Structure formats: structure tokens, C-alpha cells
């Protein structure tokens, strides 16, 4: 069995491999899924990820709900995490599995999946213990700084200046992005989120490990507001969005740079 493999049981009889792939693709790139159905109709699956941290994120989801059924996610192997201080030469390339767990949890909620507050706290605890990866921090801060300097001037960041000159900064940052093609590298949600009235809050959420369960719910609402989900996953119910308030967060769909994982960071 691969070190990047998890076992999933408690899968609804009607859940398809596609639905299972969509759910777990938020964790990171999936190599393959082996879905088995027993004579009594119950289903289980073995999911093979390309990275250890993706498997660990999947384990975090133990107890999550998919199509009305509670999933049991386990593994027969340990999945070593990369060092938070690992260094990579050149421009940062962000895979879904590089994102903070709290951010991934917010994407799930924004898309309408049900995660208990216990799972959200688990995400926070993992981020606190593992730290935010150097690769992710470089990626996030680079966009904030580069776009800020080009749009607002030397030593300026979008998140730091936007409260004072939001409209101007947003317009100029958008123009810069169109010229330089940052959106081809940066997640659409992140770039828009930084250049917004709550840019500092977004920056803090994704770069600091100190946060609360309520912060994840708030981020989910922001993501959903930014990119309204087209449809809620079959059989799942949205816990983040309230009836009167659209869920927030980015479209939690696998990003083009990996597989179909969320486009938010």
C-alpha cells in the first residue's frame, strides 16, 4: 500500500467514484480511486494521493459527511509532512495540498459540504503544529507585495494600503494582473481577496496559525460570496452559508495546476 493512501468506509450506496473524487480532490492531487461495493450495497474505497500531505488532509476529514453519510477515513501507514521551512528555488508553485488545512476546510464549507466544528478545530491544530509551508507563504506574500508595488508604489502592499484607496488599488491591480498574467499563477480568489476591504483579514487568515473555528466559517462565507457555487454537492448540506447569507469563499474546485481541486487558496 502506498504511503499516500487512505481507506474510506461509510460511503453511501449511491455515491459514485466521481462524487468521491470531487470530495477528496480538495485534499490534493489524486492518482486513482479503488471503489468497492459489498453484497449488502455498502461501499468502501482506497484513495491514492500523489503527496503525503494530501493523505493527511484526507485523514483530517474523518467524520465528514458526504451525501448524507458519515465517512470513516483511516490509513495503514504514516504520512510524513514536508518541513514548513523547506526551500524551493524559483517562483513558488502552489498545489492544492500546499494550502493551510484551515483554508482547505473553508473551501469545503464554501462549496456546501458539511464538516463538524470538531473537524475545523482539527484543521487549526494541524496548521498550528505543522506551521504554514514556506512555499505557500512565499506564494501568498509575493503576490501581495508585487501587485502592491506595481499598483501603489515602492514598499506598498495591496493588503496594507487597500483600506485607504480600495477602488484605485483594485482597479490598478486588476490592470496589472491583466498585463502581467498573475491570474495564470495566482488563485483568482486570493488575488481578488487581497485587493478588497478585508484584504488584511484574508492575509492574516492564510499566513498565521492562530485562528478560531469562527474564522474558518467567516472565510467560507467570503469565498462563497466571491464565487457563488454553481450547485451544491448531491446529498450534502451547507453548514457555512446561512439562508440569508451566501456561503463565502472561493469556488472549491480543483485548481488547474493540480487536478480538479479548489481554486481558492
TrEMBL record:
Keyword RNA-binding part of the UniProt annotation: yes
Ranges annotated as biased composition (Polar residues): 255-265
Native species: Coniophora puteana (strain RWD-64-598)
Single GO MF descriptor: RNA binding
Protein name per the record: RRM domain-containing protein
Residue ranges, compositional bias (Low complexity): 231-250
PROSITE patterns per the UniProt record, alphabetical: RRM
Cross-referenced Pfam families: RRM_1
Keywords (A to Z) from UniProt: RNA-binding
Amino acid at each position: 500500500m502506498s504511503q499516500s493512501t487512505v481507506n474510506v468506509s461509510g460511503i453511501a450506496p449511491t455515491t459514485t467514484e466521481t462524487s468521491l473524487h470531487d470530495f477528496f480532490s480538495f485534499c490534493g492531487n489524486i492518482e486513482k480511486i479503488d471503489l468497492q461495493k459489498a453484497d449488502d450495497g455498502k461501499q468502501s474505497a482506497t484513495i491514492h494521493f500523489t503527496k503525503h500531505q494530501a493523505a493527511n488532509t484526507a485523514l483530517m476529514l474523518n467524520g465528514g459527511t458526504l451525501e448524507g453519510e458519515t465517512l470513516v477515513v483511516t490509513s495503514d501507514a504514516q504520512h510524513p509532512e514536508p518541513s514548513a521551512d523547506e526551500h524551493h528555488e524559483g517562483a513558488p508553485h502552489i498545489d492544492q495540498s500546499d494550502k493551510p488545512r484551515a483554508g482547505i476546510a473553508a473551501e469545503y464549507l464554501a462549496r456546501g459540504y458539511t464538516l463538524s466544528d470538531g473537524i475545523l478545530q482539527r484543521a487549526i491544530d494541524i496548521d498550528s503544529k505543522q506551521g504554514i509551508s514556506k512555499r505557500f507563504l512565499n506564494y501568498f506574500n509575493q503576490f501581495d507585495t508585487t501587485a502592491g508595488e506595481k499598483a501603489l508604489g515602492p514598499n506598498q502592499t495591496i493588503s496594507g494600503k487597500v483600506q485607504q484607496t480600495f477602488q484605485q488599488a483594485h482597479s490598478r491591480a486588476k490592470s496589472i494582473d491583466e498585463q502581467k498574467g498573475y491570474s495564470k499563477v495566482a488563485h483568482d480568489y486570493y488575488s481578488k481577496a487581497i485587493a478588497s476591504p478585508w484584504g488584511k483579514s484574508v492575509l492574516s487568515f492564510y499566513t498565521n496559525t492562530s485562528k478560531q473555528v469562527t474564522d474558518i466559517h467567516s472565510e467560507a462565507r467570503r469565498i462563497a460570496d466571491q464565487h457563488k457555487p454553481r450547485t451544491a454537492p448531491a446529498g450534502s448540506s451547507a453548514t457555512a452559508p446561512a439562508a440569508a447569507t451566501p456561503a463565502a469563499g472561493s469556488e472549491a474546485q480543483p485548481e488547474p495546476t493540480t487536478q480538479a481541486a479548489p481554486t481558492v487558496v
